Amino acid sequence: xxxxxxxxxxxxxxISTVKPDDKPKYKCxxxxxxxxxxxxxxxxxxxxxxxxxxxxxxxxxxxxxxxxFRLSLDPTRPVLTSSVALCGGTLVNKDWIVxxxxxxxxxxxxxxxxxxxxxxxxxxxxxxxxxxxxTEQTFQVQKLLVYPKYNRTVRYDADIALLxxxxxxxxxxxxxPICLGKLPPGRRGRELCYITGWGDTENGK
Length: 205
Known about the structure:
Elements: H1 3-16, E1 64-70, H2 79-82, E2 83-91, E3 96-99, E4 120-124, E5 137-146, E6 161-165
Antiparallel strand pairs: 1-2, 1-4, 2-3, 3-6, 4-5, 5-6
């Protein structure tokens, strides 16, 4: 038997052993836990406003990332007590987060470089940002890329950045990537979208 034929038969044998149940459990944009979506007849449906939104179901937006800024570079200090939650982001694959460039703008009078990768943690699988949770995965930022055309003097102009995690995220019921794709011509700005993150659901709360 020739090596080519042997390799072909081996490949065919391997393919024949793959069952439908062996397909990946987690697919981008398909959370295992269904989110609350807009329904005109549902009193618990999400608000149409960004301010004073609605509490999400735990794990229903598994691509949501929490960005924490390290106040101390001491590696022995716990993440929760040595950092503050400053921004949100979105998991686009197991290694990369997309977020807003303005998160890394320096603050007047603060002598800290906000574009120093060592200063940032990324947490996935989070629900309560103020508590340690069994579903969370915490990463350091290996690389921080701010879009070159970002212009902080023009609000939200090219306001995008990418973060590479120091390790690949594990896909779980609470950690999954969002799908990236192109909108068909003429559809831009005409889709119903959902905005997620941590904020106030009512005044002062």
